[in-house]
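If your schedule permits, I should be very grateful for your opinion on a structural question. Kindly check, if you would, that the fold set down in the C-alpha cells agrees with what the sequence suggests. Thank you for your consideration; the sequence and its C-alpha cells are set out here:
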Amino acid sequence: FNANLDWAHKLLGLIISRGYHKKLVFRVALRVNEKIIDTDLLSHLRAAGVWFVMFGVENGNQAMLDHMKKGITIEEVKRAFRVAQDAGLKTEAFFIVGMPGETHQTVQDSLNLYKAIKPYWGGFSMAMPFPGTGLTEELRKSGNLLCEDYDKFGPECKAVKTDTLSADEIANYVKLLNGMARQDKIMHPKQLMYAIKGKVFGR
C-alpha cells in the first residue's frame, strides 16, 4: 500500500473526504522500508479507518533477506512494527520457512525476530516454488525441488528442501512455529530442535 506514498495519501484523503472512514474499517499490507513508513502515514491510515497492518517479513536473518532480494534490513523490520504499534495499529507478520539457504539457525533467527517485534498476529508458511519464478529455477538447479505438481500445493505439500533441512523438518517447523505463534508460547532453542527432529510429532 505504501510503495507509492503520494498515491497512498491521496487515496486515504479521498476516503476521508467522502466520509467512507465513518462506515468502513479495513486493513492494508505495508512494506517496512524506513523511507516509506512514518508517523504521518500511520496517522493518516488510522484516520481513514485502517486498524490492522500486515508486513511480509519473510525471515529473521539478514543474509537470507539479502538472498531473497527483499531490499529491507532487520532494523527496518523492528522499527516498522514499533512505530505501527505506537500509532495504535494492530500488526501481523508473515514469515517463510524453507527458502534456499535456510538452516536450523536461520529459522531460530526468524523466531527470535518474531519475539522481538511482538505482532498481534503472525504466520509461518512453507516456501512454494511456483512456475516461472526464480525460486523454482534455483531449487531445480540445486536439486532441492521435490515436487512440480502445482495442483498439490497447499499446507501439506512438501515441495522443497534445503541443503541442511529436509522437507519433513521444514513442514515440522511450520507446524510448530504457527502453533507457538497462536499460543504465544516460545520454546527454548534446545526444545525447538528436539521437536523439529520429529519427537513431538511421533516420527
Summary: The beta strands are 26-30, 50-58, 90-97, 121-126. The first strand starts at residue 26 and ends at 30. The domain at 5-199 is CATH 3.20.20.70 (TIM Barrel).
